[in-house]
Amino acid sequence: MGSSELLRVGCAFLVLQLIPGTAGWGKDGHYATCKIAEEFLTEEASAAVKSLLPDYADGQLANVCSWPDEIRHSYRWRWTGPLHYIDVPDFVCNYNYCRDCHDPARHKDVCVTGAIYNYTRQLGSTYYDPSPEIKYNLTEALLFLSHFMGDVHQPLHVGFTGDEGGNTIIVRWYHRKANLHHVWDNMIIDSALKTFYASDLSNMIQAIQRNITDGSFNDVPSWGNCTLAELACPDPYASESINLACKFAYKNATPGTTLGDEYFLSRLPIVEKRLAQGGVRLAATLNRIFTPKSSIAQI
């Protein structure tokens, strides 16, 4: 699988070799997204997912959700780099697929939303068809889809071109030097684990799951909906991310700024909600792929 079929209605269709890009949620963030998703899979979808997992996953999707980050810098997989993010024009706080979904060389459809459409299509068209025209590696498709669903919910994965989604904005996180993208990938979650969850990721995940089921988050039943009977609909998720990046990630985080309690405590609810939304929407997407429509229940 040295190249990827990237398709979106209304824009160009290309098969490409790609170059590296930015990273995604840290390992804990991806684990949390996929662990949350596992709780909302239908019986049929759960069985299908487990049938595609590699043996070393021990039957848990969450155990392998960071795989695309682990392999992306090896020679064979360098082409996947730009599939982890979207760069919008500087200071433009909105997203448009045909304008924004391209790699740095401006090859169309090469971005995280394009990848989600692609890998959803691979799973949906091949899993139940024993003789497709094109055979895909469905294990890889599942792992990429699951990972990229997490990435598109990290606000700075739909960030400005000029600062590479916050990667070139150097700040201090309390007493540590970091770039703004890394703060959102890892450091807000790390600080939350130490401050509120006794350094135990399972505690954080359980708290987020309770917020999903007890109504603490608004509009949970609508999170997983797709229009036009599509299996995946990542464009609204990307629009949410750039909106949140402008309102929260970039705000008061200019180069040289020290980010402390005020930034951390006001941004943590955003991070936790995005982890929740990523998990719910990943489950909804996998349920649409692997479950008969009559069997899908609302969260």
From TrEMBL:
<keyword id="KW-0732">Signal</keyword>
<dbReference type="Pfam" id="PF02265">
    <property type="entry name" value="S1-P1_nuclease"/>
</dbReference>
<dbReference type="InterPro" id="IPR008947">
    <property type="entry name" value="PLipase_C/P1_nuclease_dom_sf"/>
</dbReference>
<dbReference type="GO" id="GO:0003676">
    <property type="term" value="F:nucleic acid binding"/>
</dbReference>
<keyword id="KW-0325">Glycoprotein</keyword>
<keyword id="KW-0540">Nuclease</keyword>
<dbReference type="InterPro" id="IPR003154">
    <property type="entry name" value="S1/P1nuclease"/>
</dbReference>
<comment type="similarity">
    <text>Belongs to the nuclease type I family.</text>
</comment>
<keyword id="KW-0479">Metal-binding</keyword>
<comment type="subunit">
    <text>Monomer.</text>
</comment>
<dbReference type="GO" id="GO:0006308">
    <property type="term" value="P:DNA catabolic process"/>
</dbReference>
<keyword id="KW-1015">Disulfide bond</keyword>
<dbReference type="GO" id="GO:0000014">
    <property type="term" value="F:single-stranded DNA endodeoxyribonuclease activity"/>
</dbReference>
<protein>
    <recommendedName>
        <fullName>Aspergillus nuclease S1</fullName>
        <ecNumber>3.1.30.1</ecNumber>
    </recommendedName>
</protein>
<dbReference type="GO" id="GO:0004521">
    <property type="term" value="F:RNA endonuclease activity"/>
</dbReference>
<keyword id="KW-0378">Hydrolase</keyword>
<feature type="signal peptide">
    <location>
        <begin position="1"/>
        <end position="24"/>
    </location>
</feature>
<keyword id="KW-0255">Endonuclease</keyword>
<dbReference type="GO" id="GO:0046872">
    <property type="term" value="F:metal ion binding"/>
</dbReference>
